Every structure is written in C-alpha cells, then in structure tokens.
Amino acid sequence: MSAASDDPARTDAPDSAEGSDLDQAVSRVEHELGRLFARIRVSWREAAATVHPDLQPLGYQVLTSIATGKATSAGAIIERLQTDKSAVSRHVRQLEQLGLVESVRDPEDRRARVLVATELAQERVALARSRYEARLGERLRRWSAADLDHFAELLAAFGD
Prior knowledge:
Layout: H1 3-6, H2 13-51, H3 57-67, H4 74-81, H5 85-97, E1 101-106, E2 109-117, H6 119-140, H7 145-159
Antiparallel strand pairs: 1-2
Helix pairs in contact: 2-3, 2-6, 3-5, 4-5
C-alpha cells in the first residue's frame, strides 16, 4: 500500500482519480446486477408460464423447491425462499389445485405431512429447466473456459 492510500486524509490527484474510477466501476457493477436480476425475474416468469399459464414466478420457485426435494414442507420453503407464510400457503394451495403438488404422509414420521411434486409437475419443471438451461448455455458457450472459470470464481467471491 502506498503512503497516499495509508492516509485517508490525503487527497492526491491519483487517489481521487482512482477513487472516481472505482466509484464508476462499482456503479457499472450495480447497474449490470440490476439488469441480471431483471433478466432472472423474466426467466422465472417464462418458466412459470411453461409449467402453467396461471402460475406466478414465486409459485414456480415453490414448485421447484418441492420438485427437487430441497424443501418439502411449508416451513422449509419459507426458509429457502425467504418469504412469508401466507404467500407460500397461497402458492401451495394453487399448486395442489393445478394438480402439480400433493400433500402426503411423511414416510419417516407418519404424523407429519410432506409436499411432493406430481409426475405432471416433474415433466413441466423439466421442460422449463431445459429451456432455461439451453438459453443460458447458449450465452455462456460464447466465452472461453478460462473466462467462465474466472467468472465462476468472481461470483463465488461476491457471494461470500
């Protein structure tokens, strides 16, 4: 570290320019993250419509949590998706009405019930995932393996 960067009170031109460059870079990243999140929301909406025209994006996320076995109870879904109980209950009810989810006795604890995706749900989720993965793969395959590895490292570091 240089003496100029060790002293926060110093305002040499190079540090000011570097700070400005850094601020601009941070702004660009924030802007691109916003665009990425918007694209992800569009992808969830498209995936939900692939499963059923009346399904909302959050309903799709609830369904995929159930279908993958990552969350098979309302409490687990709430924790996984960081959403409220009423929203999960509403979407689970809709998924049951659409024939996409069933509530069955937990084979490990006969007193409890778990949510399972029906065969229809598994088929539709697989179709939605394959469409999404094809689009994502098409974009990512434009990059070199080295760029993809670097991107994955940066994403992992950013997520920590």
